[in-house]
TrEMBL record:
Keyword Oxidoreductase on entry: yes
Domain Acyl-CoA oxidase/dehydrogenase middle, first and last residues per copy: 134-224
Listed name of the protein: glutaryl-CoA dehydrogenase (ETF)
PROSITE patterns recorded: ACYL_COA_DH_1
PANTHER family: GLUTARYL-COA DEHYDROGENASE, MITOCHONDRIAL
EC numbers on record: 1.3.8.6
Origin organism lineage: Bacteria, Bacillati, Actinomycetota, Actinomycetes, Micrococcales
Length: 390
């Protein structure tokens, strides 16, 4: 780093494109990531530890559901939220994922589709980090085809009874409320399941080599009984959960560039400190080419994220543009992390440097909220008018 910031920021002055409010949010998130996450993240990743005490601190910083209006939420712009995601993922993808699950998925579902009573009950506590939410959509048979979900909800008098299974549900074992999507006789509906409800069980998935500082779970719904008022009244059909997924994808578009920036900064620093054949490796043409290519893709990805953020704030963002951003930025972040690992040599696979942790995490980011293949097909459909999913 230079005295004024990261080395990349002396070449790519993104701050010149941001408003004072956006800069404030960027600095707030960077300060949190630097002082609260970075000092402990390598240990937490190694020990598979989710540091739950950071959740109220995120709430106190205004970072939970920050793009939502009212109910204790900050009402920040989309670009401000994106910048926060970038800074958090520069520390670790797991913590940007937490903010996405809490704010873009669980809180957004309640904010968009909940009754006033549901909003008043949950949103202020979630914004403060006093309650954790999860979003249960993906199932074991495949997350890419939510229309094929097997989880069912049936009426039994004044109650709903849910049965089925969900997989890769972030935060489910620590959630105070789960937003569960299930098929009913009238289409897909969302239900709020408070933690501790009989018939709801969440088990953390073991053996993860990625996202080790966060929690993903298998969820089992066995005759899980809920009152009629547990249903989200404003969501009917798959458009409800898919609109929330687009909120989360927006955060990924920005967050992936945070992981990329960290890997690039580490590679620059190492290229100056590591000497081979009597000179720093940064003096070698091939290494400089790698660094230049990494910077180009980081700059382009961040400018793409900013363009998409401006579209979102203007209300003109399309599904296709979200797919462009998610597909490009995660793919290029992985390429940047991989190139950084090569510059670090063998040391790049150790936890002396954060690159391998970011590379492992980004493989999960590449998979969730739509794989490369799915977003490629979405864009293909947009360009040709022909759906090639089947």
């Amino acid at each position: 780093m230079t005295d004024s910031g990261f080395v990349t920021e002396t070449v790519f002055d993104i701050d010149a494109l941001l408003s004072p409010e956006e800069l404030d949010w960027k600095h707030t998130a960077r300060e949190f990531a630097t002082t609260r996450i970075l000092p402990v993240i390598e240990q937490d990743f190694e020990e598979k530890h989710f540091r739950a005490e950071l959740v109220p601190a995120l709430g106190a910083a205004g970072l939970l559901g920050m793009h939502l209006e009212g109910y204790g939420c900050a009402g920040a712009s989309a670009v401000s939220y994106g910048l926060a995601c970038l800074e958090l993922e520069a520390a670790d993808s797991g913590w940007r994922t937490f903010v996405s699950v809490q704010g873009s998925l669980a809180m957004s579902a309640i904010h968009k589709f909940g009754s006033e009573e549901q909003k008043q009950r949950w949103l202020p506590r979630m914004a403060a980090g006093e309650a954790i939410g999860c979003f249960a959509l993906t199932e074991p048979t495949g997350g890419s085809d939510p229309a094929a979900m097997e989880t069912m909800a049936r009426r039994d008098g004044d109650e709903w009874v849910l049965g089925g299974r969900k997989r890769w549900i972030g935060l489910a074992s620590v959630a105070d409320v789960a937003v569960v999507w299930a098929k009913t006789d009238e289409g897909v509906r969302g239900f709020l399941v408070p933690g501790g409800t009989a018939g709801f069980r969440a088990e953390p998935i073991e053996g993860k080599l990625s996202m080790r500082a966060s929690i993903q779970c298998d969820v089992y719904l066995d005759d899980c009984r809920l009152p009629a008022e547990a249903m989200l009244p404003g969501a009917k059909g798959l458009s409800g959960p898919l609109s929330c997924l687009n909120e989360a994808r927006f955060g990924i578009i920005w967050g992936a560039m945070g992981a990329a920036r960290t890997c690039l900064e580490v590679a620059i620093a190492r290229s100056l400190s590591r000497e081979v054949f009597g000179a720093p490796i940064g003096a070698r043409q091939l290494v400089q080419q790698k660094l230049a290519d990494m910077l180009l893709e980081y700059e382009k990805g961040t400018l793409l994220a900013l363009h998409i953020g401006r579209q979102k704030d203007a209300g003109t963002l399309t599904h296709a543009q979200i797919s462009v951003g998610k597909l490009n930025n995660v793919r290029e972040a992985i390429a940047i992390a991989s190139a950084a690992r090569s510059i670090l040599g063998g040391d790049g696979v150790t936890n002396e440097f954060p690159v391998m942790r970011h590379l492992a995490n980004l493989e999960s980011v590449r998979t969730y909220e739509g794989t490369d293949d799915i977003h490629t097909l979405i864009l293909g459909r947009e360009l040709t008018g022909i759906a090639a999913f089947d």
